Amino acid sequence: MVDIVKNFQNIRSSINNSNVNIIAVSKTFSLDKIKPLVDIGHNHFGENKVQEAKIKWLNIRRDNSRLQLHMIGKLQTNKVRDAVELFDYIHSVDNEKLATALAKYENILKKKNKYFIQVNIGNESQKSGIDIDKLSDFYLFCKKISLNIIGLMCIPPNNQNSKKYFIELSNLNKFLKLDQISMGMSADYLDAVQCGSTFVRIGSAIFGDRVTK
Ligand SMILES: *Cc1c(COP(=O)(O)O)cnc(C)c1O
């Protein structure tokens, strides 16, 4: 059996830096698997689908105002309203249409969230994220419409050493004078921390292998 609490605590002590937030990525896992982490006082959880997150988290959030929910997946424009309402952080802002919709629903719902701009750091044609050469302009656009951009986020190319991508994202983050960085997953979070990550997104190393998705 997977000891989720123990896995989490081992990761916490391996990071050994209280400035680094661990987002426990609970996508595909049911609430009974997640609950033990809530019960030991963990606050940051990540999901990649709005509908799934809503079903799992809506009630438990009402009873635990300390919980911080992170949307880490691709966000479709027709799900923006629900996402703004449910999440505290959204890591996948990567185009003007989406940014505009987020700002619109923040106004309608009278809610301010925290946002990361997702950068296509490996310049991969199939990957989400803004191209590096468009990042500065896009950041200015987000600022103009008053989105609270707190940092950059990336998912490096598969099956490669992530480190050079983490260094590059960290440099872009510094260039834009942003404080937070969302990078590092189960396989590479220690490298990410070394390169300055402040939010690591860890799923399988905490919860075990995902059966689906
Ligand atoms: C699923 C997911 C993670 C967690 O991946 P693991 O390898 O299981 O740690 C992190 N970030 C994003 C964007 C994800 O979709």
Q: Can you walk through the features of this model?
A:
By secondary structure, this protein is α/β, with parallel strands linked by helices. It has a single domain (31-180), classed as TIM Barrel. The protein contains 9 helices and 8 strands. The chain has helices at 4-15, 31-39, 50-63, 80-86, 96-109, 135-144, 163-175, 189-194, 204-207; strands at residues 21-25, 44-47, 68-71, 89-93, 114-119, 149-154, 180-182, 199-202. Helix 4 packs across helix 5. The protein starts with a helix and ends in a 6-residue tail after the last helix. Residues 25, 27, 48, 72-73, 155, 185-187, 201-205 line the site of pyridoxal-5'-phosphate.
The oligomeric state of the chains shown is single chain
Beta-strand residue fraction: 15-25%
What number is the mean pLDDT? Answer: 96
Order of strands across the main sheet: 7-6-5-4-3-2-1-8
Question: Element order, helices and strands?
Answer: HEHEHEHEHEHEHEHEH
Number of strands: 8
Helix content: 40-55%
Total domain count: 1
Report the CATH topology name: TIM Barrel
Give the CATH class: Alpha Beta
Silhouette: globular
Largest sheet: 8 strands, parallel
Distinct small molecules bound, one entry per kind? pyridoxal-5'-phosphate
Task: Give the low-confidence spans.
Answer: none
Rg calculated over all Cα atoms: 16 Å
Helix- and strand-based class? Answer: alpha/beta
Number of helices: 9
